[in-house]
Write a structure and sequence with these properties.
Length: 431
């Protein structure tokens, strides 16, 4: 009994207990007492980061003031003022606004990290995602959300033997993900069976989304709006054909889709009412959710159809984390960026909706099993182009959306809109 009691006492006693006055001082944390202020776009990625900030604070000794706001609140004022809100150390930035904010951002090569290639594992990033952080050959951040327009379709319909035989008999080729504009239209017509199924879901509500949709459309017709030094060569007949084509797609879409944004597309697709469309990866969690979607497990994701002459049509929209040039906490901001993009954290955030910019994560078998669209992100980036990198990009975007939606809402005929678009682009001085 005495032996048993002794063993019990020893089990609860710590052999390492020392008097408080003899304890060694804990090593100081590298950023003890500093406060990092971050301005971020409100999305699932930023929400996931905000839920883990205590981990970074514990590791560094710093506190983080992480403010999430919607895109218009960040970029809306930029049409009148180029200044970022004062007092922030780091900011998340959508690709086309890198140019406008470049004068206020610290170039990536000046970030105070000795070996950036190793610290951020730069060779593992999708090359296009890294290019999306650049303006005039200088990088101003690190990719945190690799966004790209992905061709989304119902594999259960495309693989059905009856559907395949019927399609081959009607169009003379195999039913497959569309490779060009004509095949995309053929598939939309074939699967258009209202009111239960429609061949397409458009983006028609005036927004940056309609700019992206229009650029995607024009690329499928080999219309290059990204080379703003050559708008004189823009062919009105090509633009008119593209507009007419999109009106045909709208006829193959659900009724009252003339003011649709992403939320409408997501809802209709998840209810099993859409055969194919273009979408962003951040919505694909919902497509594959057994709780939210009626078509979970029945979808596939791949690169967008190419133009007639092989033009890439998918649009990349990488979000970056940049450091403000006037920050007094540059080293802390760089450490935060390194933490945000670390592999260990990224594996957690992918499961919460982040689109990783690193190839190793996109090809990770365990993640692919859970998130089947990750491979589609790689394929789409390989086939993607960026929106123009111009200081006054928002004027370009406004012109594109104005004329695109004017056709959709029948304010202008396709011919009138094509002529007006060329005239407006020629008067625009992108810089």
């Amino acid at each position: 009994m005495r032996l048993h009691r002794l063993i019990s006492l020893l089990a609860f006693a710590s052999p390492f207990t020392v008097p408080p006055h003899l304890k060694a001082a804990e090593p100081a944390k590298p950023f003890e007492g500093q406060t990092l202020r971050v301005l971020s776009y409100y999305d699932t990625n930023s929400q996931a980061i905000s839920s883990r900030l205590s981990q970074f604070e514990e590791m560094t000794g710093a506190s983080v003031n992480f403010r999430m706001i919607y895109g218009d609140e960040i970029y809306g004022p930029l049409s009148q003022d180029t200044a970022l809100p004062h007092g922030y150390d780091a900011v998340t930035i959508d690709q086309p606004f890198i140019a406008r904010l470049s004068s206020q951002l610290l170039p990536f090569d000046q970030w105070p990290i000795a070996n950036k290639e190793a610290a951020f594992d730069l060779p593992d990033f999708i090359p296009q995602a890294l290019r999306d952080t650049e303006y005039q050959g200088v990088s101003y951040g690190i990719p945190i959300n690799a966004n790209v327009y992905v061709y989304t379709y119902r594999m259960d319909l495309f693989s059905n033997s009856v559907e395949r035989n019927d399609f081959r008999a009607l169009y003379g080729y195999e039913l497959r993900p569309a490779r060009n504009a004509q095949e995309f239209l053929d598939i939309a017509r074939f699967f258009n069976r209202p009111p239960h199924l429609y061949g397409f879901a458009p983006s028609t509500e005036y927004s940056e989304g309609t700019t992206v949709e229009a650029i995607w459309l024009f690329n499928m017709f080999d219309i290059n709006l990204l080379d703003f030094d050559d708008y004189q060569a823009l062919r009105v007949d090509q633009v008119e054909s593209a507009f007419k084509y999109y009106l045909e797609l709208i006829k193959l879409s659900p009724p009252k889709s003339g003011d649709w944004h992403n939320r409408d597309k997501v809802n209709y697709y998840s209810r099993g009412r859409i055969a194919q469309m273009m979408s962003w990866p951040s919505f694909m969690d919902k497509f594959e959710s057994p709780v939210f979607s009626l078509v979970a497990g029945r979808n596939r994701y791949t690169a967008s159809p190419r133009g007639i002459q092989g033009t890439r049509s998918a649009i990349s929209g990488t979000w970056s984390l940049g450091i403000c040039k006037d920050s007094e906490n540059v080293a802390l901001a760089a450490a935060f960026a390194e933490w945000w993009t670390s592999e260990k954290l990224a594996k957690i955030f992918v499961r919460k909706g982040m689109n990783p910019g690193k190839v190793s994560l996109l090809r990770n078998e365990a993640l692919l099993y859970e998130k089947p669209w990750l491979n589609g992100i790689i394929q789409s980036f390989d086939e993607s182009v960026s929106r123009p990198k111009a200081i006054n990009y928002e004027h370009f975007s406004q012109i594109i959306s104005d004329h695109f939606t004017a056709v959709i809402h029948e304010d202008l005929t396709p011919r009138e809109a094509a002529k007006a678009l060329k005239k407006a682009l020629l008067s625009l001085e992108l810089k």
